Amino acid sequence: MTAATHSSLFPRESDGGQIVTPPRDADAVLDGLDPEQREVATALHGPVCVLAGAGTGKTRAITHRIAYGVRAGILQPASVLAVTFTNRAAGEMRGRLRQLGAGGVQARTFHSAALRQLQFFWPKAVGGELPRLLDRKVQLVAESAARCRIRLDRNELRDVTAEIEWAKVTQTVPADYPAAVAKSSREAPRDAAEIGQIYGMYEQLKRERSVIDFEDVLLLTVGILQDRHDIADQIRRQYQHFVVDEYQDVSPLQQRLLDLWLGDRESLCVVGDASQTIYSFTGATPDHLLNFRTRHPSATVVKLVRDYRSTPQVVHLANGLLNQARGRAAEHRLELISQREPGPEPVRTEYADEPAEAEGTARRIRDLIAAGVPAGEIAVLYRINAQSEVFEQALADAGVPYQLRGAERFFERQEVREAGAALRGAARFGGNDSLLDDVVELPSQVRAVLSTKGWTTEPPAGSGAVRDRWESLAALVRLAEDFVRAKPSATLADLVAELDERAAAQHAPTVQGVTLASLHAAKGLEWDAVFLVGLTEGMMPITYAKTDEQIEEERRLLYVGVTRARSHLSLSWALSRSPGGRASRRVTRFLHGLRPGSVASDARGARAGAGGGAGGTVERAGATRRKRRGPVLCRVCGKTLTDAGEMKLMRCEDCPSDMDEALYERLRDWRAGQAERLSQPAFCVFTDKTLMAIAEAVPASEGELAGISGVGSRKLDRFGADVLAICAGEERAEADRDS
Question: Can you list the residues of the chain whose pLDDT is less than 50?
Fold first, then answer.
């Protein structure tokens, strides 16, 4: 999956204009920058701190700064190291720098830059080959726990692994872990002494097997630079100028490495926003950003507050959220000023229960798509990944294609690998390929090659595997079109090289489909329409956020979610988990004073409520559109049901079933035919649980069929006659008809 954003190697107009050919000279690099961005670009000497709000074009500002310095002859490309936190962001930065005529600048993640240095200097500093890098530490952590006779379930294993990572980036050794946890008010997933024991065994096993992990890359590089001044001096001669993006996310270990790279120089530019600090659980801290002027009294400080991403309505709500914030980061918040034309007011909707919220969200998404908003420009964002299932089901039921962020990587998909091989072959032997005889333009060449792999000018109907394959190939076609616009003389070989670089950086092009993602995973991305769901106390803020600092980080997480939206923003919450459940949930405190009729939680929030973001109305969809149902009871034992799957069946999973097995098989066969005809996954027709419920109830009328969970009005209209005919034992000619 890739986020549904515009191809980030080719700058968006919302960043201030698209670049097609490199600027003619240094002064032309500054064209199109706003006054504050220009100030950043021309501040080439001494320490520079850029405080950049969401959507203010920070990447544009710092890439133009580097390019201006290079084109003006002030900076040598090979002497600049730009550091960020993800391969995608580093790839975006390299692409923009190439577009600006500043190729040769190193743009890498902290880990990538450190690993290159470690691989190069290890033989000189230590001798022999660098130990093997551990791909996944979870298995070794599991073995360490077993050696310590401590049993961990899957969730505990994941959490303990995260604790070890936190300890290492905060430079905490195993013996000090319990004290460090207590000092930081961190809630350990198990007894801190036990985690410290597992951590110690994990380090021992790594030494025994001559392997290192991701965090060791930084730790070992720091160790070498501290102990070997000759190596440190060699690196400092190589890199004269440093740029650090997302500086609010720097950990103590990364800051230590940066200090060693710098030495006693101040040729440093940092960019960040304390209001977007959302990764403290990994060891990230905004303190380095907030203390920058204390450490560098002569620093040039520039604030970017012109928001080119979001409409005034979205920005208004975002500012209102921060107006109620407390703590040190809040004291440095930036008041954004939208540069966009007005758009729709944010929609706030209260639902009776989670299924109603998911169904309502899916309906609104379907309406947006019908109104012309591409599915790839829509996202549903939630606090934790476990919330995704009910929205996946609702979107599938509504026939809306979706993709989970964090699923299979784009360049690892079978069809993408096959397409890459085909393009590589065409680039090498295209002169002998009759397919390309009459094709000159690069995009046309790509279309011709990919047509042999399943790409067509029109997408297949529905969703499912066939549509997924087409979307992957279509994303490559769109990338070729963008690439040739940015580089008109590009050849097929140039595009293949671009694809190889993107694959190495996991910088994937756009795939169409509504994105489902956690708020943390959405950081750094943007969509035309964003649905923030599940906004109730206990989920936002999350129930284990206890301290003031933890609560404020949750507020910042919601702020990040709000600022992902360009035009359409929807905020929703459900009063109960399941239909008929007690309406005991409360909307998140972060919206107090920011929705009509609500009161801010303190005087500061009251001011925000009076002037900051309470426009629009709150819809109570659960109360006005949906009849409240009583508790759902098992029809066998009478127990109250809460599990969504059990509620579909109207019985406990363990209670005996009176399902008509033969009918169930007929329904499955019919569903397979429908799925194939519609080019959709089978579950988009009906889920297994819904078919089981039908086979148990054996409905004889539309009313009885409509009473089964999972059979909405849309599916009743589309499939009802077929299903009733199958239940009645009639011939399936009607069921197999084309519609």
Answer: 1-19, 407-408, 462-464, 602-615, 623-630, 732-739
CA nearest neighbour of 18 among 313, 378, 308: 308
Contact by Cβ (8 Å): 87, 112: yes
Residue 723: CA count within 13 A, CB half-sphere: 29
Residue found by looking up tokens 């005034």 in the block:
312
- Burial category of 116 from C-beta neighbours within 10 Å (exposed 0-12, middle 13-18, buried 19 and up): middle
pLDDT of residue 7: 35
384 sits in which H/E element: none
pLDDT digits (tens, 9 = 90+) for 111-167: 999 999 999 999 998 888 889 988 788 889 999 999 999 988 776 888 889 899 999
Is 301 within 8 Å of 46 (Cβ atoms)? no
At 597 the pLDDT is: 53
Q: What is the pLDDT of residue 580?
A: 78
Res 628: pLDDT: 40
Angstrom CA distances, 409 to 270, 468, 472, 509, stand at 30, 13, 11, 11
DSSP assignments along 500-566, one per residue: HHHHHHT------SEEEEETTTTTT--EEEEEE---BTBBTTBTT--SHHHHHHHHHHHHHHHTTEE
Nearest alpha carbon to residue 339 among 16, 720, 702, 677: 16
Cα 523 from Cα 406, distance rounded (Å): 13
* Phi-psi map region of 185: left, alpha, beta (phi>0 left; psi -120 to 50 alpha): left
- Give CA separation, 291 vs 257, 295, 296, in Å: 17, 6, 9
> Helix (H, G, I), strand (E, B), or coil: what is residue 306?
strand
pLDDT of residue 38: 93
Helix axes 252-262, 229-238, angle to 10 degrees: 80
Amino acid 85: pLDDT: 84
Q: What is the three-class DSSP state of 107?
A: strand
* H or E segment to which residue 347 belongs: strand 347-351
H/E segment holding residue 495: helix 492-505
CA 9/CA 505 separation, integer angstroms: 12
The first and second tokens of residue 442, run together, are 């690069």
Helices (H), 43-153: 58-71, 87-99, 110-125, 138-147
For 267, the 3-state DSSP assignment is coil
